[in-house]
Amino acid sequence: MDCDTGFDDAVALLVIDRASSFELVGISTVVGNTTLERTTANTLAVVERFGIAAPVHAGAAKPLAQEPQTIEELLGGGALGTVGRSFPPPRRRTVDSRDAITALTAALERGPLTILATGPLTNPAIVLNLRPELAASVERFVFMGGSATSGNHTAAAEFNAFADPEALDVVLRAGIPVEMFGLDATRQVPIGPGEESALRRAGTPNAELWADHVGFYLRMLDRRTPRPMALHDPTAAASLAWPELFELADARVEVELHGSRSRGATLCEFRVPTLAQPNARVAVSVQGEEVMRRVLEVLRAS
Questions:
Q1: Which of 73, 97, 283, 301 could staple 185 via S-S, CB 3.0–4.6 A?
Q2: pLDDT tens digit string along 200-233?
């Protein structure tokens, strides 16, 4: 899994680690929600707290062709904002001696590999640029990012796509089996005050920790009033854990690299192969209530 760990990446990490159909063999970090140093520290804190055994590898500190676009001021507390409890700093877990590029390259050399990416795609793009033949070892490339309609970071662009559009372009052109879980899918999986309350009722230390982070997430836009929010990264992870809850459609996906107002926008042409050759499968329908119910069970059981 490749991530820029904030709140929803942390949930996605737990979902994929607990998925019985997959073995989590490695975690790589990237600048995105916050700096590389902070995303790596956040990831180490999460894996230590929940006993996730996979090694953590630090990755790219900058996007391919621009300065980092971080959003700590929105996400709070080093991208792990909370209304109370926080993840303790890791005491035992440390970053692996191999960097993310080396580790991902080695894993693909052993192949085949499913990659789940919940941040900007800088790390896999670097590997695919350096070793394009390793594309043959990518069994599935599942990423949270993009949108077939409107954006969230700008009017046109979703944040992960905007944070490194050149990297997304590399992935889309690599000839690998891409599955895109964009805003059109994640907005079908809202988390709200009911889930915060359910976690508080569970009464365990971990459930209460999650409740405090959910509480902040629901109050990002209005500190006084919680409101339902899309559960972005866990939706992509849930597609691997429970694929029967998702419907995907073939599409031609391209990312805008040059527009002064549309940089990072993802253009999804679903009229394939009539008007274009498909290069991805895009999530179009999600059984959102059931996804949320199952994610909540993972959090309560943590």
A1: 283
A2: 999 999 999 999 999 999 999 998 899 999 999 9
